[in-house]
Design brief:
The chain is of the alpha+beta class and 420 residues long. It has two domains: 31-192; 199-418, Rossmann fold (3-Layer(aba) Sandwich), CATH 3.40.50. It is built from ten helices and 21 strands. It has helices spanning 13-24, 210-213, 225-236, 263-272, 286-293, 301-305, 315-331, 352-367, 377-381, 404-412; strands at residues 31-37, 59-66, 73-80, 87-89, 91-97, 109-110, 119-121, 125-128, 141-148, 157-158, 165-170, 182-184, 187-188, 190-197, 200-208, 240-248, 277-283, 335-339, 373-375, 382-383, 386-390. Strands 6-5-9-2-11-12 form a six-stranded antiparallel sheet, with no helix packed on it. A five-stranded parallel sheet has the order 16-15-17-18-19, sandwiched between helices. It has a four-stranded antiparallel sheet with strand order 1-14-3-8, with no helix packed on it. Strand 18, helix 8 (352-367) and strand 19 form a beta-alpha-beta unit.
């Protein structure tokens, strides 16, 4: 059978293929890179003082995100990955936002999905929007509004947003200001922002737990350590535009499910599938140690004991988990940087047995040669006079999570020359 567009004469094959390639891959086409992101979480029941995951119906949710790399166009990734029924998006808009998250006049853009202003997101699926022509600079803030006309069921959310989001009364307010009926600090049905630029771009994924999530930092201030690293990379300048994606999950563990799936289970989605990813920073393990070896007490002791894994997360087991992450990342051409586990004596789940395991893990991170580079976060935080504890002023009062100063110390301890 003959091709309609090209003769089968062998002398014309090269010309034919060259012509087809020109049409298939436009010259100078921009590549997409992730500039912001969070890890979606399944709904959860009420736990102690924490309420159950909410649902929404006939409401607009407005969320503010601080991106890292800039570009000429953006596209937004929504998520219904833990939904049990289709999610209806009635309308969505994006705009540049000022320092307080207020949309800036003249920058509002409608978000379309396959050319339409609304979409149906299947249960268990993400949804990537059409490209939006909205030039954004590095470290800009975006306001993203989504109208949900039907009952959503329990939200596919990211619970530790550390940023105020606004929920309306009934109605579509995606194109206008509104008086919020409620405020929250979760990311709802929103998991990523990508940018397209004609220049070179690479993305770094910070892969960890609540310390990476930024728990303990000032809300609405972008003081998580990945935010601060993004600012340092942007200030360095150079030919590469650096994206930073924070895939920390509060309560997450390397080896066992707790808050969200364990690190090994979620690695493909939360790291390998991120557009433009070139580096991953692995900073996780303290929850494995705490839940395996901790001595729990207090009103939530029974709840915490229920998290104890069937098989204790020894140093050997955690290191084996790291080796899995490294192998899977290297297979995709990524560089893997390992961060030492920070001190936690004084926290609710500390024990001397867990501390011994932490020291063994950290020795391997520093000297085992498995990682492509080492970030010594333990050294950045430990108290020289009491090295099993975080230095005063660097933790948030719980001897586990960072203060603003603590997260600044972590970001400042990272050698920028590791990122090339």
């Amino acid at each position: 059978m003959r091709s309609r567009g090209c003769s089968l004469n062998k002398s014309l094959v090269a010309t034919c293929l060259a012509t087809l390639l020109v049409y298939a891959v436009p010259s100078g086409a921009a590549e997409w890179a992730a500039t912001w992101g969070v890890a979606p979480l399944p709904p959860s029941a009420a736990f102690g003082p924490f309420p159950a995951t909410p649902s929404y119906h006939d409401q607009t949710i407005r969320q503010v995100v601080r991106i890292s790399a800039g570009g000429e166009r953006v596209r937004i990734r929504f998520t219904n990955e833990y939904g049990t029924k289709p999610l209806v998006i009635g309308a969505a808009h994006v705009a540049l936002a000022d320092s307080k998250g207020v949309p800036q006049a003249g920058t509002d853009r409608e978000i379309l999905f396959a050319g339409r202003p609304n979409a149906l997101v299947p249960a268990g699926a993400p949804l990537l929007s059409d490209p939006v022509d909205l030039p954004v600079k590095a470290l800009a803030s975006l306001s993203i509004s989504v109208y949900l006309p039907e009952d959503t069921g329990p939200c596919t959310c990211h619970s530790t947003g550390m940023q105020t989001a606004y929920v309306s009364a009934s109605g579509d307010f995606t194109k206008q200001a509104f008086q919020p009926q409620a405020q929250m600090q979760s990311r709802a049905f929103l998991s990523g922002v990508e940018v397209a630029s004609a220049g070179r771009a690479k993305t770094v994924v910070a892969f960890g737990d609540s310390i990476t999530d930024g728990l303990g930092s000032t809300v609405d201030a972008n003081r998580r350590w990945p935010d601060l690293l993004a600012a340092r990379l942007a200030a360095r300048g150079g030919a590469i535009s650096w994206g930073m994606v924070n895939m920390g999950i509060s309560g997450n563990r390397v080896l066992d499910d707790n808050a969200g799936q364990n690190a090994l289970a979620r690695f493909d989605r939360d790291v390998l599938s991120v557009p433009g990813v070139a580096y991953v920073i692995v900073f996780e393990g303290v929850n494995d140690l705490g839940t395996s070896f901790g001595n729990f007490s207090g009103p939530l002791a029974a709840s915490f004991k229920s998290m104890t894994p069937a098989h204790k997360a020894t140093a050997e087991a955690i290191i084996a988990g790291y080796r899995q992450i490294i192998a899977r990342a290297h297979a995709k051409g990524l560089k893997v940087l390992g961060a030492t586990i920070t001190p936690y004596e004084g926290s609710a789940y500390y024990s001397a047995e867990g501390e011994a395991q932490r020291q063994a893990v950290n020795r391997w991170i520093r000297t085992g040669g498995g990682f492509d580079g080492v970030l010594d976060f333990d050294a950045a935080w430990r108290d020289p006079a009491h090295p099993t504890q975080i230095k005063e002023g660097l933790h948030a009062g719980d001897h586990l999570h960072g203060s603003d100063a603590g997260y600044d110390a972590l970001a400042g301890a990272i050698e920028l020359g590791l990122f090339k």
